[in-house]
Amino acid sequence: MKIEVNIPEELAIKADQYGLNLPKWMSNQLSKFFGDGTIDVIPAFQKEEEQFTVWLSNQQLGDKYISDTVSYLSKFIRNEIDNRNDVLKLIREAPDYFRPFMKKYIMYLETVGKLNKESSDIYRKLIPNRKVQVDSYIPTTEEIKKAVNKLSGNGRMFFMILAMSGIRLSELTKIINEFDPSLIVQIGKYACRYPLNWKRGKKGSYSMFLPIDVMNWIEKIEDISASEIGMSVSASGINAKSLRKFFYNFMISKGVPESVADFVEGRSPQSVGSMHYLASLKQAEEYYRKLAWELNRIVIQE
User: Fold this and answer.
1) What is the DSSP string of 63-103?
2) Beta-carbon contacts of residue 300 (< 8 Å; ≥ 6 apart)
3) Residue bearing the bigger pLDDT, 269 or 176
4) What whole-number distance in Å separates Cα of residue 72 and Cα of residue 108?
5) Mind listing the pLDDT tens digit for each residue in 200-256?
6) Is 35 exposed, middle or buried (0-12, 13-18, 19+ CB in 10 A)?
7) At 167, is the secondary structure helix, strand, or coil?
8) Buried (b) or exposed (e) across 193-209, using 16+ Cβ within 10 A?
9) Cβ neighbours of residue 295 under 8 Å, at least 6 residues apart?
10) pTM score, two decimals?
């Protein structure tokens, strides 16, 4: 009686990585998993850099993500790759955070027809997913009060904007560098919003909500980079991502529905209909109008 045994995907990858001498039935299973024969060549990144950058830009990704992707691909894919061992060697030598950039390059090559699907699938299977530790830290109100008092000047302003709007660091950078005060919409005695209507991957960021006094500070800030903002904020002991989590948690704790909190922080799908958008915007304005004074008390401490 013939029994067919399937090799788990993880074991198949390990066997291929270390070139193990396997029984014939195992080798057959590996062939099913990885494919037989030759695979398409991955070109040296320098040959594709210009077209790849345009392709990446058309996906509405952040400038920092694009520059990081291009930088790491330029550094590690200097020569063409035409076999599995080259991929495995590259993965061993490159840092973990290179892996998603490599997968993005493979996706591009398949999209433009320079890798067939079978080859791209084989290459992707050889690239382990990046191990990411989940950061569950959410600053408390008292920690926010202490942290903001460690800062002064622009660093203090950046901290306040991030803590009171939940805006992303990349978005704040773009807002500061392109700020137009004529776009500010007042939504109450203490609150206002700044229209964005930006796409970010599959999500859409529609407005930045802030107390009026804080919004008016932005016009005084000169052009700056995301790394400069991030470093100045982190001097408080709390980074930008944690401030975003604080604001989201603060909204939920004050009775803001999750759907409205997602809309305020730009987690809503970019394809929302006009009626749904207007309803969400109205709800967001109503809730933020109520929160603005208390945010002033906590963050600005006035």
Assistant:
1) HHHHHHHHHHHHHH--S-B-SHHHHHHHHHHS-GGGHHHHH
2) 160, 211, 213, 214
3) 176
4) 15
5) 666 668 899 999 999 999 988 888 888 889 888 988 989 999 999 999 999 999 999
6) middle
7) coil
8) bbebebebeeebbbbbb
9) 163, 164, 211, 250
10) 0.58
3 state SS of 269: strand
Q: Provide the sign of the torsion angle of the four alpha carbons 44, 48, 50, 54, taken in this order.
A: negative
Instruction: Name the residue with tokens 């509405």.
Output: 60
Q: Which amino acid is at 241?
A: K
DSSP character at residue 190 = S
Predicted confidence at residue 72, as pLDDT, reads 86
- pLDDT on residue 16: 45
Continuous segment of H or E residues that includes residue 278: helix 274-295
* Strand (E) or helix (H) holding 209: strand 203-211
